[in-house]
Amino acid sequence: MQFNQERVLERLMEMIRIDSVSYHEGPMTDYLQKYFEDRGYEVYRDQAGAAIGGDNAGNLLIHIGGDMEGEGICLNAHQDTVEPGLGIEPVFENGILRSRGNTILAADDKSGIAMMMELLDVLQETKTPHRDLWFLFTICEENGMHGAKNFDYDKLPVKNIFALDGAGNLGGMLKSGAGKDALKITFHGKMAHGGIEPEKGINAIAVAASAISRVKFGRIDPETTSNIGRIEGGGATNIVTDEVTFTCEVRSHTQAQIQQQVDLIVKACQDAAAEFGATVDIDIDHFCPPHKPDPDGFMYKSMIRALENEGFQVEYRVSNGSGDANIFSGKGFNCSGISTGMFDVHTTEEYLDMAVFAKAFNVVWSILTQNLA
Q1: Rounded CA gap, 148 and 76, in Å?
Q2: Which of 108, 109, 141, 165 is the catalytic position?
Q3: Tell me, what DSSP letter sits at residue 278?
Q4: Backbone angles phi, psi at 242, to 5 degrees
Q5: CA distance 202 to 198
Q6: Alpha-carbon span 252 to 224, nearest angstrom
Q7: Is the CATH number 1.20.1600.10 carried by domain 179-288?
Q8: Would you call 197 exposed, middle or buried from its count of C-beta atoms within 10 A (0-12, 13-18, 19+)?
Q9: 10 belongs to the catalytic site
Q10: What is the DSSP code (8-state) at residue 314?
C-alpha cells in the first residue's frame, strides 16, 4: 500500500523537534491529544506522569472503530526518548533521516507514532475496511516502562497489542523476551578507627566483597544473565566503613529461572553478613516479567503471514532486552511488534531508513486489513 512519504516526513520533523525525554513528555502528550481531538476522536488521557514524579504527561488511548469482522488490535508506541534528546534538528537526505549528530534522532519511537498516524490517514483516504483499532501512546518506556506499569487496562477491551517500537531490518519474530528482577543490597557494618582499633569495627566493604565472591555473575546459562551495575560506600582510609550498597539485576526467560538466581544472590549476602556479624537489607524490584508470545495466537500468526506475504523469510529470535511488551504480556495481553526501520538507537548515530519504514508499513497494513491468521 502506497503512503504519503512527504506527509510522514513533515510529521516526523515536527514531532522530533518536540522535546520529550523521559519524565518530561508533557508537550508531546499535548501535541498528540490535540492532533486526535482535532480530527474528532475521543482521547483518554491519564495522570501517569504525575504518578511517577514527572510532568503533566500521560498515557493516551484512542479508539478507532472498525468495520471488519475478527479480532481487534491495539497499536502501541511510546512518547518519550532517551538523552541527549533536547533541541534535536532532523536532517533528511537520500532516504535517510538523521539528527545533526549532537543528539539522538528520536526515531525511537516517534517513527512508530508517525506510522500509526499515516496508517489512519491512508485507511480513511482509501476507505479500506479494517479491524477495530485502539492507539495507545505510553510515557516513560525508556526509563522503566513506567507509563505501561501505571495504565488502567480496564480501559482497553482488546487482547492484542502490537508495538511499533523495533529496530533493525525486518523478518525477525520474537520467540521470547527476558524478564528482569533488580536488586538493591545494603550491608550495615560498624564504624571504628581504621588505624587505632579496627578490630572494633565491621567493614561493610569486606562483607560486600565476600558476598559477591560467593555467587556467579555474568552469563549464567544460555537464557540467564546477572550483572552488578554499581557499588558505593566508604570514605576516609582511616575509618572502617559501616555501610555499602550495591545494585544488580537478573534477566531470564521464565520467572522460575530469575527466582533461582535471585535466591542464590540473597543467600550469599545473608551468609556473608552473618559470618562478619553485619546486617543486610535487600530490596527486590520485579522490574518486568518475561514475555513469551503465543505461537498459536492471532497476533503471532498474523505477523508471520504478513512478513511472508512481503517476501521475508521469518527468523525466530530470543531477546534479553525489555520494553512495554513485557508489561503488556504480564497483564495477559497477546503481544507482537515490528521494526519501524530505525537503527543505532540510543546513540547520536541513530537514523531512520525510510525504505525499511515503507516495508514495515505494508506489513502492519496487511495485519489491520486482511484475515491472515
Answers
A1: 10
A2: 141
A3: -
A4: -100, -5
A5: 8
A6: 4
A7: no
A8: exposed
A9: no
A10: P
Q: Report the length, in residues, of the chain.
A: 373
Alpha helices, H only, the chain: 5-16, 26-38, 48-51, 107-126, 146-149, 204-213, 255-276, 298-309, 324-330, 354-369
Q: What is the pLDDT along the chain (373 residues), one digit of tens a residue?
A: 889 999 999 999 999 999 999 999 999 999 999 999 999 999 999 999 999 999 999 999 999 999 999 999 999 999 999 999 999 999 999 999 999 999 999 999 999 999 999 999 999 999 999 999 999 999 999 999 999 999 999 999 999 999 999 999 999 999 999 999 999 999 999 999 999 999 999 999 999 999 999 999 999 999 999 999 999 999 999 999 999 999 999 999 999 999 999 999 999 999 999 999 999 999 999 999 999 999 999 999 999 999 999 999 999 999 998 999 999 999 999 999 999 999 999 999 999 999 999 999 999 999 999 998 7
Domain boundaries along the sequence of the chain: 5-177+291-369, 179-288
Q: How far apart are CA 186 and CA 183, in angstroms?
A: 10
Model confidence, pTM: 0.94
Catalytic residue among 25, 80, 142, 181: 80
Torsion over CA: 339, 343, 344, 350 (sign):
negative
Q: Residue 219, Cα to own-chain centre: how many angstroms?
A: 22
How far is C-alpha 289 from the chain's CA centre? 12
Query: Which residues are bridge partners to 176 per DSSP?
Result: 318
Residue 170 · residue 213 · CB < 8 Å: no
Cis peptide before 84 (omega within 30 of 0): yes
Alpha-carbon distance 25 to 57, whole Å?
5
Same fold? 5-177+291-369, 179-288: no
Give the β-pairing of 243-252 and 279-288. Answer: unpaired
**CATH superfamily, region 5-177+291-369:** Zn peptidases (3.40.630.10)
Among 363, 369, 365, CA closest to 308: 363
